[in-house]
């Protein structure tokens, strides 16, 4: 039985500094449950002074706790214990589910195991990265030695709070850094519990700190703090640009940016079974209510199967029902809040005013109280400058464009601003490879549209979708700075 009573879940204090929860005296931010829109807690917002306390504690832990100098396999052992605690903590799952858009069955079956496995993957990386040796003159030995940065600031969005945190914390901590993480102010509490479990597993106090609050207050204080040596950010393109410029002015800090997307699903006539394809397209734009950076939101389909695929999708879109995230029967996610719902509504309205036709959906579900659920929506008759094609909607809206010839499809697939992800669907290998080469995106999925559940494949966008990679060995390597050493002997 996974369903639970959200009112029976004790909400922790959100700020976790120097190994314990801390009550702060600044501004209180009321926090709502997305699926019924009810206020359920007040969050203490960390002021610039509180952020300073967290960063100082992280810096002290970096220099004094011995975390960075511990044998890497021992760091890995702590992290494996942490992953086990995460996997078995029902309280963590309930905090994630009641406070985010993630239904409890998704949290238990996907989010939590995925989070724990990401931590385990980086635990295994801890002793498997060794820098380089260089051919030099006979009398010299040249080396490149990786070392941790010190304090890394991690900033996360609200759409997958725990797994996003694990993608940032895993590599940074395995490399021996200390971290101060700021979750979204809309989904604050599960990350704090995750940090508490880290201390239970053996992370020294101060190695992992959580600060809470709005971007302009807490986030800004964190990214501009002089002791923060690197920033790992996931969120919108606009905030990413701001963070990049602040990082340049406040210490020339390196940044990893995982930003927005507007990903195409390029489907050719020879893509195979139409029912299977329709399900693939459906999951690609409705998972988490469309609030996924990699959502496949632009269907670009060859005319030979366009009508049949569209009709299948219209039928499937009618099968969704809203529900409370703490009910195990719920499979469809709410919008995170009314503001996000209104954003979806306004882009759909703007798209219609420029000639787009809504084939199904196009509205909020009725009778869901204060919860905001958007109906899966299909739109066609779109020119390439329609707002629904140009802008990231971050809701369950799929635009449909058709093409006759391969070149035409390829031209439609690459977006002028975003390059996060793309799906290519064809049973012709040469065509798939031509498309893979042509599309400007950091990830191309061929004949599938989802991650594989492995952690070795990195993820990251091109152009305005970001800089650098999360996951894979690349994220671990990027959690180090590299010192060149030349020894004469
Ligand atoms: P957002 O940019 O509004 O906020 C993200 C985080 O940044 C939040 O914690 C916020 O408080 C913080 N923030 C805001 N202003 C800040 C500032 N001045 N200084 C420091 N921190 C600040 O994004 P969101 O609405 O929370 O998330 C949705 C966006 O995230 C979408 O665009 C989505 O595509 C993107 N996203 C990208 C990926 C990826 O891997 N590429 C993954 C998930 C989400």
Poorly predicted regions: none
Strand content: 15-25%
> Can you list the ligands bound to this structure?
nicotinamide-adenine-dinucleotide
Output the radius of gyration. Answer: 23 Å
| Dominant shape | globular
Number of domains: 2
End-to-end distance, in Å? 67 Å
Provide a count of the helices: 15
**Count of extended strands:** 22
Explain what the structure shows:
It holds the Pfam family Aldedh. The active site is at residue 258. Keywords: Oxidoreductase. Belongs to the aldehyde dehydrogenase family. The chain is an alpha/beta fold. The protein folds into two domains: 6-259 and 466-488, 3-Layer(aba) Sandwich (Aldehyde Dehydrogenase, Chain A, domain 1), CATH 3.40.605.10; 264-454, Aldehyde Dehydrogenase, Chain A, domain 2, CATH 3.40.309. Helix content is 38%, strand content 21%. The chain is built from 15 helices and 22 strands. It has helices spanning 48-64, 72-88, 90-99, 104-125, 161-174, 189-201, 215-223, 237-249, 274-286, 303-317, 338-353, 387-390, 406-413, 429-438, 472-477; strands at 16-17, 20-21, 28-32, 39-44, 132-134, 140-148, 151-155, 178-182, 208-210, 228-234, 255-258, 263-267, 296-302, 357-360, 377-380, 397-403, 418-419, 421-425, 443-446, 462-463, 466-467, 480-488. The chain has a seven-stranded mixed beta sheet with strand order 14-15-16-13-12-18-19, with helices on both faces. The protein has a six-stranded mixed beta sheet with strand order 9-8-7-10-11-21, with helices on both faces. A three-stranded antiparallel beta sheet has the order 5-6-22, with no helix packed on it. Helix 9 links the parallel strand 12 and strand 13 (296-302). Helix 9 packs across helix 10. The relative contact order is 0.14. The mean pLDDT is 97. The protein binds nicotinamide-adenine-dinucleotide. Nicotinamide-adenine-dinucleotide binds at residues 155-159, 182, 184-185, 214-216, 219-220, 223, 234-236, 239, 242-243, 258-261, 293, 392, 394, 420, 461, 466.
């Amino acid at each position: 039985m996974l369903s639970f009573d959200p009112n029976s879940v004790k909400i922790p204090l959100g700020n976790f500094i120097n190994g314990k929860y801390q009550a702060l005296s600044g501004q209180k931010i009321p926090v709502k449950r997305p699926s019924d829109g009810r206020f359920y807690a007040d969050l203490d917002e960390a002021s610039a002074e509180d952020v300073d306390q967290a960063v100082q504690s992280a810096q002290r832990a970096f220099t004094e706790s011995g975390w960075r100098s511990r044998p890497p396999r021992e760091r890995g052992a702590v992290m494996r214990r942490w992953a086990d605690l995460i996997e078995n903590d029902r309280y963590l799952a309930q905090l994630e589910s009641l406070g985010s858009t993630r239904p409890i069955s998704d949290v238990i079956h996907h989010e939590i195991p995925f989070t724990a496995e990401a931590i385990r993957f980086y635990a295994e990386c801890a002793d498997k990265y060794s820098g380089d040796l260089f051919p030099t003159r006979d009398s010299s030995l040249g080396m490149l030695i990786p070392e941790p940065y010190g304090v890394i600031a991690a900033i996360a969005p609200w759409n997958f709070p725990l797994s996003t945190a694990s993608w940032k914390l895993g590599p940074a901590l395995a490399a021996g850094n200390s971290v101060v993480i700021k979750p979204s102010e809309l989904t604050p509490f599960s990350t704090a519990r995750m940090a508490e479990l880290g201390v239970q597993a053996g992370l020294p106090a101060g190695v992992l700190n959580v600060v809470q609050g709005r971007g302009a207050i807490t986030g800004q204080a964190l990214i501009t703090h002089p002791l923060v040596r690197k920033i790992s950010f996931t969120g919108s393109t606009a905030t990413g640009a701001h963070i990049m410029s602040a990082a340049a002015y406040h210490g020339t800090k390196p940044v990893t940016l995982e930003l927005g997307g507007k990903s195409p699903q390029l489907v050719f006539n020879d893509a195979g079974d139409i029912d299977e394809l329709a399900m693939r397209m459906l999951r690609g734009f409705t998972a988490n209510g469309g609030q996924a950076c990699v959502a496949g939101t632009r269907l670009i389909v060859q005319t030979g199967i366009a009508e049949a695929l569209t009709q299948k999708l219209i039928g499937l879109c009618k099968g969704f029902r809203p529900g409370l995230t703490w009910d195990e029967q719920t499979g469809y996610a709410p919008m995170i809040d009314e503001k996000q719902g209104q954003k979806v509504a306004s882009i759909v309205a703007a798209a219609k005013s420029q000639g787009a036709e809504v084939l199904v959906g196009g509205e909020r579900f009725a009778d869901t109280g204060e919860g905001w659920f958007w109906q899966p929506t299909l739109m066609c008759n779109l020119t390439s400058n329609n707002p629904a094609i140009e802008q990231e909607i971050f809701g369950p809206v799929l635009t449909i464009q058709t093409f006759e010839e391969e070149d035409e499809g390829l031209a439609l697939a690459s977006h002028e601003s975003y390059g996060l992800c793309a799906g290519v669907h064809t049973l012709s290998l040469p065509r798939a490879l031509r498309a893979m080469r042509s599309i400007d995106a950091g990830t191309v999925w061929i004949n599938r549209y989802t991650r594989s559940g492995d952690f070795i494949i990195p993820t990251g966008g091109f152009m305005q979708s970001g800089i650098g990679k999360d996951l894979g060995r690349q994220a671990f390597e990027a959690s180090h700075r590299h010192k060149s050493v030349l020894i004469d002997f």
